[in-house]
Design a protein that fits this description.
Blueprint: E1 3-9, H1 16-24, E2 31-37, H2 44-50, E3 57-60, H3 66-76, E4 81-84, H4 96-103
Parallel strand pairs: 1-2, 1-4, 2-3
Length: about 100
């Protein structure tokens, strides 16, 4: 079962690394990770590019706010389940997505 995780961000250079690492550490083997950046100017894109290996799709362009960014992500998502992880949040352990997949 493919799980799509969408993260919208804008100028979150200080927190996005933890968010990305928490997705990267997930044990589930079919994760689509979509990051939608609103055109950050604080180094967020540099951090994202350092971890590009675990990001399926990266969009970086101006938007009209978080819901516009979420909608962009949803339109790109191909997973059976779509979830959102904010750019200053993280999964508390590496089995969260596996547990979600097991309940469906």
């Amino acid at each position: 079962m493919k799980i799509s995780v969408i993260t919208a961000c804008y100028n979150n250079a200080t927190t996005i690394k933890t968010t990305i690492q928490s997705v990267k550490k997930q044990t589930h083997n079919d994760i689509e990770f979509i990051v939608v950046d609103g055109g950050s100017k604080d180094g967020t894109l540099d951090v994202i590019r350092e971890h590009r290996d675990c990001i399926t799709t990266l969009v970086s362009e101006p938007d009209t706010g978080i819901f516009n960014a979420y909608n962009k992500g949803v339109n790109l998502a191909t997973g059976d389940v779509v979830g959102f992880l904010n750019s200053d949040d993280f999964f508390p352990n590496e089995r969260i997505i596996t547990k979600v997949a097991e309940t469906i």
